[in-house]
Amino acid sequence: MVGGGQLARMTCQAAIPLGVRFRVLADSPADSAAQVCAATTVGDYRSLADLQDFAAGCDAVTFDHEHVPAGHLQALERASVPLHPGPAALHHAQDKLAMRRHLTGLGVPCPRFAPAPGLPEIIDFKEMSRGWPVVLKATRGGYDGKGVWVCETPGQAAEVLGYGIDLMVEEHVPFEAELAVLAVRSPFGQGAVYPVVQTVQRDGICREVLAPAPGLAPSLAREAEALALRMAGELGVTGLLAVELFLADGRLLVNELAMRPHNCGHWTIEGARTSQFEQHLRAVLDLPLGVTAMAAPHAVMANVLGGSDGDMLGRLHHVLAADPALRVHLYGKAMRPGRKIGHVTALGPDLAGLRRRAQAGAAYLRWGEAAAEAEPADIEPVPAVSPAGKLGEGTRT
Length: 397
Hints:
Blueprint: H1 6-18, E1 24-26, E2 40-42, H2 48-55, H3 70-78, H4 87-94, H5 96-105, E3 113-115, H6 119-128, E4 134-138, E5 148-151, H7 154-161, E6 167-171, E7 177-185, E8 191-193, E9 197-202, E10 205-211, H8 218-235, E11 239-248, E12 251-258, H9 268-271, H10 276-284, E13 298-305, H11 312-322, E14 327-330, E15 340-348, H12 351-367, H13 371-374
Helix pairs in contact: 1-10, 4-5
């Protein structure tokens, strides 16, 4: 796996029971995955020579991020390196404008969009869509809210244009909820899909994942699952495909794609019969895929973000003593405000109770004794998608 972050760390853990010899290309020995993976190579994913050396002798090469230069991927493919996903598929996760164009050409519902080389094009787009605000996105890079700007005025749009990066403009969608679905596809062509989840975002960062998405009409859930499987096939994905969706006016719109394990699927470690990390390994090695059924009626995953410095071991002791049924995953990352340093998962039949427990555990790990005072919103319930059945029946693909 190219990349040494927490996704590689958790994939390494999934490789152990399968007997898979797992290697990581990390930026430094301090990277999250490098701390737990014995077969770590320190190198630069932007260096073709480092990538070639790392890939030598691998049965499969996959990724925990989308940032490897496209030219390097194509050179590796020409040298018969078994890449999963390949450059043609990964292009649609690396270039948001290319992704939008390809998906709309396939008839996949997306927000309205256009290239944004300058302010006149943005103003023209605004006139043809919903008006202000509009959303400007960097066509490449960006995560956790970075590379996305909601612009209320031409002046704000001009400021973003001043950054000198390639941009696209999208309509600002007044969505009812943000959803996500994970599909997986093997080189043999076997496919599987996990239940649709709701993601709860704040400041552009996913704070909570609810599985399955509460109150989502079964027909819309089936539509989202079928859409993810269809896109995995149409784009030629091998491995996981994470599809982030807006639910707006009772319709599903595709927002973002990722072709790797994804934050929306961390709940699957305990909450599904096969975790997303094991599933990704099975797929890229062309092994039979695992069962995606849930292991409990509900699963709630709350991200732990960097907060106040302090004794993390002491905080962990408190959380585990206060709620022994919580599952805590810490990534070995240095504390930095807003950085994802771990997650907490709770399983059971009572969704509201699970949310309170997961949020309280994550908040305490972030803030310690000051959790309730520092960020009370973290330990308050967030409204679910809707009452069951309210959203209507939708249309199956």
